[in-house]
Amino acid sequence: MKNIFFFLLMIGMVPAFAQNPQVKTANGLLEGVTEASGIRSYKGIPFAQPPVGDLRWKAPQAPKNWTGARKADKFGPQAMQRFIFSDMVFRSDGKSEDCLYLNLWTPAKKGNEKLPVLVYFYGGGFMAGDGSELRYDGESMAKKGIVSITVNYRLGVFGFMAHPELTAESPNHASGNYGLLDQHAALEWVKKNIAAFGGDPSKVTIAGESAGSMSVSAQMASPLSKGLFNGAICQSGAILGNLSPMPREQAEQTGVKFATTAGANTLADLRKLSADKLLELSANTRFAHIIDGYFLTEKPEATFAAGKQMNVPLLAGWTSAEVGYQGLLGNHPPTLFIFKDAVQTLYPGNADKILDAYPATSDNEAKLAATQLASDRFIAYSTWKIIDMHSKSSKMNVYRYLFSQKRPDTTQVLIGAPHASDIEYSLGNLPLIKAFKWTPGDYKASQITQDYFANFIKTGNPNGKGLPVWNEVKSGKPPIQVLSAETIAKPDDTAKRYALMDELNTKK
Fold first, then answer.
1. Could you identify which of 22, 121, 234, 270 might form a hypothetical disulfide with 264, taking C-beta atoms 3.0 to 4.6 angstroms apart as the criterion?
2. φ and ψ at 117, to 5 degrees?
């Protein structure tokens, strides 16, 4: 029998059970899977101890060691969350408070090569999301020579509740931001272990979309992040401008109010509640990022203004219709009269300024202007803000994009590419998303966008052979790279809009 095995080994026909790749990490041996493409995947890798029991609402603790080969062939559970977004399709096996796992795709290691690394944080408003979603799958990027990772982090009440008792028990005198600390712990794991998977710990790019993009900006602003990554990609969102974090004291009062509503007199009482009960009780309370005094020590604007953020190259942008005109006009028709009336209602003292920055003289122009204003109010302005501030205070290149490839979605009435639609294009995952009948134009847009992203991950510069030139942002002359099947660079036509958004945000 032994002779047969060695014969099969020599001719490359070892049975599947013998081909499972194994990697030794700091905590023990992992056994992954070799995909049909030859890419090796390792799913459900613990990067911290389960945050349950006394570890609920504590900073993530280092994972414990194990003996033998740990199977890494399936996704870990998703973080506790409600079903909120219909476009989220998970491959994980249910949800659990025990959710701190990451997933990794890597080309077969050859010698002592050191490959660039992508660490991707999912979106979902800090309330939903999971690293197992098809649109985040890392195999396509791994085919381009990049070690790709998706990370789970705590959400909602589990990931972001602050409370005076939690602050008092913390050795860092901080509470909240546990989800962001989870991401930080995953980056620490990457630094310690990625070389074993063929990755270069000195060439790590973090990326994310929406709440994931906000997370990227938070990691950039955190004093804890030094040395953990050397590039950043923000796809629609940043914790600047209108999405800046709240002070810890305010967040603590939200936690106190929630505890009272939950009938819990002490922190111990809150920890006794089941995860399902906590999820149910927190349905109407919003928990998100805060200035906790530890992970975030000041307003991010102050950090970026002083140039104290991570000094790394940045690629950032947003979609051409993050939300539709409905985000401003509700169910009312997008006529010129309705648009002007809505602006008068929302900006009673500044309506003339808004109408000057978002001009419209017809119903069609009003539809576009309403879409632009709704998108800026939602998330585009905050993304512009990090591009503007980082390009002024860092020493690294900054690249700005507008993703405009509209999906072949017959149900959508948007006049551009909707929020989150750029993910599957940029990560090369159109074939995995069966909800749309992708066209040759979609695949071309994906090829261009993914190549830009891959180049940036590898070199800090998106430019490369066969791609339209993408110029970096320079103070006073910020070009916009419009990403689509007909990718072009265009002059900035948004300066007036965002100068006004800045003015109005400063007055708050």
1. 270
2. -125, 135
Cβ atoms of 314 and 394 closer than 8 Å: yes
Please check whether residues 425 and 291 belong to one and the same domain.
no
Mean pLDDT of 99-122: 92
d(CA 123, CA 121): 7
pLDDT of 397 above 50: yes
**Residue 417 pLDDT more than 90?**
yes
Residues 6+ apart with CB under 8 A from 329: 338, 339, 342, 370
Residues 274 and 405 placed together within one structural domain of the fold:
no
Please, what is the angle between helix 211-221 and helix 381-393, to 10°? Answer: 30
Distance CA 74, CA 67 (A): 19
Q: Do residues 282 and 419 both lie within one domain?
A: no
Residue 507 — very low, low, confident or very high, per pLDDT cuts 50/70/90? confident
pLDDT of the residue at 4: 46
Q: For the packed helices 381-393 and 495-506, what is the interaxial angle rounded to 10 degrees?
A: 90
Count of structural domains within the chain: 2
What tokens does 314 get? 């940045």
Give yes or no: residues 306 and 397 share one domain. no
Closest CA to 366 of 345, 344, 343, 335: 335
Residues with a catalytic annotation lie at 210, 322, 419
Residues 436/443, Cβ–Cβ less than 8 Å: no
Exposure class string for 168-207: b at 16+ Cβ within 10 A, else e: eebeeebbbbbbbbbbbbbbbbbbebbbebbbebebbbbb
For residue range 122-153, what is the model confidence (pLDDT) as tens digits?
A: 999 999 999 999 999 999 999 999 999 999 99
Angle between helices 363-375 and 336-346 (to 10 degrees): 30
Q: By C-alpha distance, which of 328, 353, 327, 348 is closest to 338?
A: 328
- CATH number for the domain spanning 405: value is 3.40.50.1820
222 and 312 in contact (C-beta within 8 Å)?
A: no
Distance CA 120, CA 136 (A): 8
Q: Measured between alpha carbons, how far is 222 from 416 in angstroms, rounded to an integer?
A: 34
Find where tokens 């490359």 sit.
Answer: 12
